[in-house]
Design a protein that fits this description.
The complex is a heterodimer of chains A (254) and B (328). Chain A has 254 residues and is an all-alpha fold. Chain A has 11 helices and 2 strands, in the order ααββααααααααα. Chain A has one domain. In chain A, helix 2 packs antiparallel against helix 3 and helix 3 runs parallel beside helix 7. Chain B is elongated, with a radius of gyration of 23 Å. Chain B has 2 domains: 219 residues, 3-Layer(aba) Sandwich (Rossmann fold), CATH 3.40.50; 61 residues, Lrp/AsnC effector binding domain/regulation of amino acid metabolism (RAM) domain (Alpha-Beta Plaits), CATH 3.30.70. With 328 residues, chain B is α/β, with parallel strands linked by helices. Classes of the chains: A mainly alpha (254), B alpha/beta (328).
Chain lengths: 254, 328
C-alpha cells in the first residue's frame, strides 16, 4: 500500500471515529444513564448485600467495584456495536460505505469510536473510586488497559452481531442469551472458589470476561484467582479473535 | 474516449435479468438521464457504475478507471445521491459535509472553503449548524447534492433525485441540479420515471425497459421521432385528401367525425390547416412528450408500470417529514 493510500485510510478511520464522538457528545441522556446504572449496582445492590457479606477480607462493595466496571464495558460496548442495525435501517451507513475507504478502516473507526465512548464512561466511574477504601489507586492505569482491551473485543463482537442481524428484534435475544449470561458468569458479583458447584465453575472459567474481571480485581484490590499474565493473554486473544471476526462479517455486510 | 463507457454490462439475479448487455457512452459535461419504469434496471445500472453492485458480466469504466479492477479509484471520482435519504440526522449540515470531506480525502487546507462554497450553492449557509433531522425534504436533498459534489467528482450519479418531494420542491431541485452541473462542470447521470421533468434537464436520455436501452437520443430528437405534433379536429366531413397533401403533414387518421393529424410544428401551420376545413367543432393540439415516446416504444404507459411505486413514495414522504419547517 502506498503512503498516500495509507494516509487516506487513516483519514477515513479518523472520520468515522470523529463522527461517533459527535454523536456521543449529543446523547447526554445516554451518558447519564450509562453512569447511573453502575452506581446503582455499587451503592444500592452493593450496600444491601454488603451489609451481611464480605469477601476475602474486603467489604462487598469494594469487591464488586471491578466487576461493575467490567459490566459497564460489557453493556456499553456490545450495545454500541449492535447499534449499527439501526444505522443500517436509517441508511446512515450507506453513504459511508460507498466512500473510497476500505471496509476494514470503517470497521476500525467504529471500534475506536465505541471504545472511546465506553472508556470515557469508565474514567467517570474511576472518579468514584475514592469512596471505596480498599481500592488501590495506583492500579488504575493497569485496570484501564485491561478494560480497554476488553472493550475492543466487545465492540467488535457487537459489530459482528450487528452485521448479521436484519432487524432490531434480535436485540432482546442477544441481551437475554448473551450479554446477561456473560455478566452473571464472569465472577463480577461473587468469588470463584471451592464453594461454587462444579458446573458453575466450569462455565465461569469458559467465559473470557472472567479473566477481565479477575485482572482488574487484581490490579485494584490485589485479590485474584489467576496469574495476571493469564488474564492479559486470554483477554488479548479474545480481542484479536473478535476483531478479526468482526472485520470479516462487517466487510461482507450488505 | 467517453467519460463513462459500458460494454455488454449485465446483471442477473437468479433468473431475472435486471440489466441486459448494456452498451453506453456518456460524454464529459453531459447531463444524461436514464428513464424508465420501476424495475427497469436503472438503479442496478447506477449501482454497478458506482461499484456497489458487482456486474454478472461485461465491463465499464469511469474516467478511465475500470469498475471491477479499480473500484477504489472509481469511488473517488464519482459522487452519489441515493434514492433514499442517507444524511446523518444526528449531525448538522456542516458536519455531514465535514464527515464526507474526510472520507473522500479532501485535503484539510481546502476543506473549509469547499464546504462553505457548496453550502452557498445550495442556499443552506444559514442552516448549516442545525441538525439535519430538522431539515425539510427539499433541504435534505439539496444538502445531499452538495455532499455528492463536495470532492469534485468527475461524474455525479443521482438516483431518482426528486422522488417523494412535492411538485414545487421537485422543480427547485431540478434547477439546482442544472445550476450545479454547470458551475462545477460535472457530468451528471440521473434516473427518474418523471419523463416530463427529465426532458427539461437532460442533454440526452436513454429509455430503459426490462433491462435494455430501447431508445437513446436528445429529448427533442426522440419527440421528433414521433413524427411531430398531434392535432385532433372534430369537423363535418373533413377533406382528408387535401390535408394529406400538405407538406408538413405526416399522418392522418379519420374516425367518423374526428380526424387525427400528425404534423410538424403545429403552432406555425394551424391557421392554414384550419382554413381548408369547414365546420370545425373543436381543435386539440398535443405536443408529444417523452411519455408518449415511451408508450409508442413499449405499448404501455410508464405510469401504469409505476403503480407499485405508490408504496415507496408514501414511505419516502414519511421519512422526509418536514419537522424543520414547523419548528421555525
Amino acid at each position: 500500500m502506498s503512503k498516500k493510500r495509507l494516509q487516506k485510510e487513516l483519514m477515513g478511520i479518523y472520520a468515522v471515529w470523529w463522527r461517533e464522538l459527535k454523536v456521543f457528545q449529543r446523547e447526554k441522556s445516554r451518558i447519564v444513564s450509562s453512569i447511573v446504572q453502575p452506581l446503582m449496582w455499587l451503592f444500592l445492590f452493593g450496600t444491601g448485600v454488603g451489609a451481611s457479606v464480605s469477601i476475602s477480607s474486603v467489604n462487598y462493595q469494594d469487591y464488586i467495584y471491578p466487576g461493575v466496571l467490567t459490566m459497564s464495558v460489557l453493556f456499553g460496548s456490545v450495545f454500541f456495536g449492535l447499534y449499527i442495525v439501526w444505522d443500517r435501517k436509517l441508511d446512515v451507513l450507506k453513504a459511508v460505505l460507498v466512500a473510497p475507504v476500505s471496509r476494514i478502516s470503517i470497521f476500525f473507526g467504529k471500534v475506536l469510536g465505541g471504545c472511546t465512548d465506553v472508556m470515557l464512561q469508565i474514567i467517570i466511574l474511576f472518579l468514584f473510586s475514592f469512596l471505596f477504601p480498599s481500592i488501590n489507586i495506583r492500579g488504575i492505569p493497569l485496570a484501564f488497559l485491561l478494560l480497554f482491551i476488553t472493550s475492543i473485543a466487545l465492540v467488535s463482537m457487537g459489530l459482528a452481531l450487528g452485521s448479521l442481524l436484519e432487524s432490531l428484534e434480535g436485540f432482546q435475544v442477544i441481551s437475554s442469551f448473551l450479554v446477561f449470561p456473560l455478566f452473571f458468569l464472569s465472577g463480577a458479583l461473587f468469588p470463584i472458589d471451592d464453594k461454587l458447584p462444579v458446573w458453575l465453575t466450569g462455565l465461569v472459567k469458559l467465559n473470557p470476561l472472567t479473566y477481565a474481571v479477575d485482572g482488574v480485581r487484581g490490579a485494584l484490590l490485589n485479590v485474584n484467582v489467576f496469574p495476571f499474565y493469564i488474564d492479559l493473554a486470554v483477554i488479548s486473544f479474545f480481542a484479536v479473535i473478535m476483531f478479526l471476526l468482526g472485520s470479516i462479517l462487517f466487510s461482507r455486510m450488505k | 474516449m467517453s467519460l463513462i463507457e459500458t460494454k455488454a454490462l449485465t446483471k442477473t439475479y437468479g433468473r431475472i435479468q435486471a440489466v441486459r448487455s448494456l452498451d453506453l457512452h456518456i460524454e464529459k459535461g453531459e447531463i444524461f438521464g436514464l428513464l424508465g419504469p420501476n424495475g427497469a434496471g436503472k438503479t442496478t445500472t447506477i449501482g454497478m457504475l458506482c461499484t456497489i453492485i458487482r456486474p454478472t458480466s461485461g465491463s465499464a469504466s469511469i474516467a478511465g478507471y475500470d469498475i471491477i479492477k479499480n473500484p477504489a479509484d472509481v469511488r473517488r471520482h464519482v459522487g452519489i445521491v441515493f434514492q433514499d435519504p442517507t444524511l446523518d440526522t444526528v449531525l448538522t449540515g456542516h458536519e455531514n459535509l465535514e464527515l464526507h470531506a474526510r472520507l473522500y480525502g479532501v485535503p484539510a487546507a481546502h476543506r473549509e472553503n469547499r464546504i462553505r462554497e457548496m453550502l452557498q450553492l445550495v442556499d443552506l449557509t444559514d442552516r448549516r449548524n442545525d441538525l439535519t433531522r430538522t431539515y425539510s425534504g427539499g433541504m435534505r436533498r439539496r444538502l445531499e447534492l452538495a455532499r455528492g459534489l463536495l470532492h469534485r467528482p468527475a461524474a455525479l450519479f443521482l438516483d431518482e433525485p426528486t422522488l417523494g418531494l412535492d411538485p414545487q420542491t421537485r422543480e427547485r431541485i431540478w434547477d439546482y441540479i442544472k445550476k450545479m452541473a454547470q458551475k462545477e462542470q460535472t457530468t451528471v447521470v440521473l434516473t427518474t420515471h418523471y419523463m416530463e421533468e427529465a426532458e427539461r434537464v437532460c442533454d440526452r436520455v436513454g429509455i430503459i425497459d426490462h433491462g435494455q436501452i430501447i431508445a437513446l437520443n436528445a429529448p427533442d430528437n426522440l419527440k421528433e421521432s414521433m413524427g411531430g405534433d398531434l392535432v385532433i379536429i372534430r369537423a363535418k366531413e373533413p377533406p382528408v385528401q387535401k390535408i394529406k397533401a400538405l407538406p408538413y403533414v405526416t399522418e392522418v387518421k379519420l374516425d367518423e367525425n374526428t380526424i387525427e393529424i400528425t404534423m410538424k410544428d403545429a403552432h406555425l401551420h394551424l391557421a392554414e390547416l384550419l382554413s381548408i376545413i369547414s365546420d370545425v367543432e373543436c381543435v386539440e393540439i398535443r405536443v408529444p412528450t417523452l411519455s408518449d415516446v415511451f408508450i409508442r416504444l413499449t405499448g404501455r404507459d410508464i405510469r401504469e408500470d409505476s403503480a407499485e411505486d405508490s408504496g415507496s413514495w408514501i414511505d419516502s414522504v414519511a421519512r422526509y417529514r418536514p419537522e424543520g419547517e414547523l419548528k421555525r
